[in-house]
């Protein structure tokens, strides 16, 4: 199915998706003129190629993402360090749920790729299943591990024939995205599939 994704503040970089690939990138009016039967998804803000979070191992293997039912006892933020190791030692089966929740939280921050070497087979498989790309970390890491690291690392531009992997942020421009962070994500698309949609 053909789908055109267009964001209010970046109508010049609308994306035509055909299956798992980008079929075309260009002004919304041009894409809809060429493919008038394509389904149109309209978003607020700007459409970007999505983010690389360089902290794949730290956030998915070395952190515990509490289940919402554990919020009263453990809070809602990722737990790292010795406390996370103690949780995994006490019940190794908790890693699977933690990884799924961690990936969902990353998708909700416009992450379409993670950096770093994933050593856990369960984590690598979960990342592969959802379609997150795994890439090299930058030589200099931005601050401590975070779902919205500072500075944000935007991936290179979308190109026809490339993977349909991008994110939409409810901001006016890239400067506002940098200032407000990845928590402004309203949609994440991987492999042509809408894998996260904000309220």
Q: Can you characterise this structure?
A:
- With 199 residues, this protein is α/β, with parallel strands linked by helices.
- It folds into two domains: 2-49 and 156-197, Urease, subunit C, domain 1 (Roll); 52-135, no CATH class.
- The protein has helices at residues 28-34, 56-61, 71-74, 81-90, 94-107, 121-130, 174-180, and strands at 2-7, 14-18, 21-26, 39-43, 46-48, 51-53, 111-115, 133-135, 166-169, 185-190, 193-197.
- Strands 3-2-1-4 form a four-stranded mixed β-sheet. A four-stranded antiparallel β-sheet has the order 5-9-10-11, with no helix packed on it. A three-stranded parallel β-sheet has the order 6-7-8, with no helix packed on it.
- β1 and β2 (14-18) form a beta hairpin.
- α5 (94-107) runs parallel beside α6.
- It starts with a strand and ends with a strand.
Determine the structural class based on helices, strands and strand pairing. alpha/beta
Overall number of domains: 2
| Count of β-strands | 11
**Sheet with most strands: strand arrangement:** 3-2-1-4
CATH topology of the largest domain: Urease, subunit C, domain 1
What is the level 1 CATH name of the largest domain?
A: Mainly Beta
Silhouette: elongated
> How would a crystallographer describe the biggest sheet?
4 strands, mixed
Weakly predicted, low-confidence segments: none
Rg result: 18 Å
Distance between the termini: 24 Å
Measured as a percent range, the helix fraction is 25-40%
Fourth CATH level, the homologous superfamily of the largest domain: Urease, subunit C, domain 1
Helix-strand pattern:
EEEHEEEHHHHEHEEHEE
What fraction of the residues are assigned to beta strands by DSSP? Answer: 25-35%
What is the CATH architecture annotation of the largest domain?
Answer: Roll
Mean pLDDT: 94
Our count of helices gives 7
